[in-house]
Amino acid sequence: MAGTATKMGMAGGLNSGGGGELEDVASSLKGALEVGSVNCEVESSLCKELGMNPRNRPRVYVYSYKASESGSLVEYTGDIAVKDLKSFVQDHLPRFSKRVTWTQFEAESRTTGSLPKVMLVSTKKDTPVIWRALSGLYGKRFIFYDIKVQDTSDPAAKKLGVNEVPAVVGWLSNGEKQILKTGIHVKDIKSTIKEYSLLLDDFEKKNKKLAASSQSKKQNTDSDSDKEHAVPLLTATNFDTVCGEKTPVCIIDVFRSSKGREKLHTILSSVSQKSLVRNPRDSVSYGLLDASSQTSYLYAFDKSGFKSSERLLIAYKPRKSKFSAFTGDVTCDEVEKFIGSVVNGDVQFSRTRQKPTFK
């Protein structure tokens, strides 16, 4: 449905007639309606496929969006007269704009989504044809509303900040309101729809720019958060900072492969964000240790250097030169349980064989 809100067509034979009336309707609704015809004497297979058997009487169909967004063919069965045809077509234009009272809109506007919202403020008793046509053309890109006011002194108009009607008000996906246009003068349907379309296209660009900016900020925030909760690889340079004597308890995850490192880093990053300590003064720091390059460090805790363990946790108390090792199944739940037991004094500690040192 490129460029129009709905379509109308006539199926008939060479001498069916009725084309002039359709053209008159199409002209009066230009911009909202496209009209075409099918000669069933020439396109017999198409007419048969569509279930059209006009014989000598032309049959008129409208592609209706009255019942659903998917659209469906509806046959016009009245007299082929311009007034009746136009009324029929208008009745089957899209109805995707929701007519609301101010109270109803206030309740709905509390929820936000990815789509921007637009509202037509007018004195019309029913949703205007142009707004219905636009709701069909832009139905998947905006949420449409329309509201009836008496004039600019109406409470709804005042709350919307509208000083001239008809007017179009928009809300970006973050809830920010903007007056898009006021005092709109309708010349003809085609030019007015074009004017509205430019307005909506520009507003959509603003919303996409806002969404891109918000996404960028979120990614930066997430990145900062990841950095904040990143678990460092212990080296001779940072060891005193992470696990020095000023640290009450240092949880060291020992790995022997890159795969093991990734798993341990994920687990420790998650656990390190949780509050497992009863006493806030008993702070806990976390670090990763590469066993393949720091075997001498592990000898300070165990004479075999824990060579039989692919992955393990060491709870180290630098001030007291004590440690406790966990060599069980290293899962998030088990790690959390072990650390909770360490900081709450439910784990037995042993003395280190010597002071841990790096190569």
Which oligomeric form is depicted?
single chain
Assign the CATH superfamily of the largest domain: Glutaredoxin
- Give the number of helices: 11
The overall average pLDDT, rounded, is 81
Backbone structural class: alpha/beta
Q: Strands of the biggest beta sheet: in what spatial order?
A: 5-7-6-8-9
Cα-to-Cα separation, first versus last residue = 72 Å
**General form:** elongated
Q: Secondary-structure element order, as H and E?
A: EHEHEEHEHEHEHEEHHEHEHEEHE
Instruction: From the 3D structure, determine the CATH topology of the largest domain.
Output: Glutaredoxin
- Taking pLDDT < 50 over at least 5 consecutive residues as the criterion, the unreliable ranges are 222-229, 276-281
Short description:
35% of the residues lie in helices and 21% in strands. It is α/β, with parallel strands linked by helices and 359 residues long. The chain has three domains: 6-91, Glutaredoxin; 98-223, Glutaredoxin, CATH 3.40.30.10; 239-351, Glutaredoxin.
